[in-house]
Each structure stands twice: as structure tokens, then as C-alpha cells.
Design goal:
α1 crosses α3. The chain has a two-stranded parallel ribbon with strand order 1-2. It is globular. 37% of the residues lie in helices and 3% in strands. The chain is mostly helical.
Length: 115
């Protein structure tokens, strides 16, 4: 189909938004979906991040679930890596593996970021 190669996909939009999330901040899957005008698509946001191409510059680790936890919990090395990357950026977790969304959440319209 002519012109289709230039059409931005939902995944492209997810990646562009997540790239804007600054170090030391997080955003939830649902918040990404809402920002993209698709409030029921939080699972699709997760699929997009799961399907990132190798070597991508998208900071996937900054996207967490609505409870402030890593959704990969109990899934081994990827969950450990995500937590380590977030902690390296200064994000702290409580004993239940949750972070304080009121403190660390990034609001895309907020030039100052979160955290």
C-alpha cells in the first residue's frame, strides 16, 4: 500500500512518549495509554514495550504498573534488571516492591518532571 510505510503506529507513539520520560521518574502503562488517547490500551502499551527492537533507546524500565510496582515481578532477570535500572536513577522501593507514585510519577505536561 502506498504511503503506509510513513504511517506512525501505536507502538511508535508509545516509544516516542516513553523516550520523553526523564531519568528518576516513572510513568504507568495506563497513563501512557491515556496520554495517547487510548485509555483502555494499557495492555497494548505493555506489548509495545515487550516488542522493542534490540538495541532500542526507549527507556522501557521507567514504565511500571498502577500500584507503583514492576509488572515483571517474579519473572526473573528482566524484573531484577528493571528494578536495578530504576534504583540507579534514584527511585526507591518499599518493602512490598512499590515505589511512591506521588513522588516519582512523571506527568508529560510537567516541564520539571517528577522525582
Amino acid at each position: 500500500m502506498a504511503g503506509r510505510e510513513n504511517r506512525e503506529t501505536f507502538y511508535d507513539r508509545v516509544y516516542a512518549l516513553v523516550r520523553r520520560c526523564p531519568p528518576g521518574c516513572v510513568i504507568t502503562y495506563g497513563h501512557v495509554a491515556v496520554e495517547l488517547g487510548a485509555p483502555m490500551a494499557s495492555r497494548a502499551v505493555g506489548y509495545a514495550l515487550h516488542n522493542l527492537p534490540a538495541g532500542s533507546d526507549v527507556p522501557w524500565w521507567r514504565v511500571i504498573n498502577a500500584t507503583g510496582a514492576i509488572s515483571l515481578k517474579g519473572r526473573g532477570a528482566q524484573a531484577d534488571l528493571q528494578r536495578a535500572l530504576l534504583e540507579a536513577e534514584g527511585i526507591r522501593f518499599d518493602a512490598n516492591g512499590r515505589t511512591d507514585l506521588a513522588r516519582y510519577r512523571w506527568w508529560p505536561g510537567d516541564a520539571g518532571g517528577g522525582g
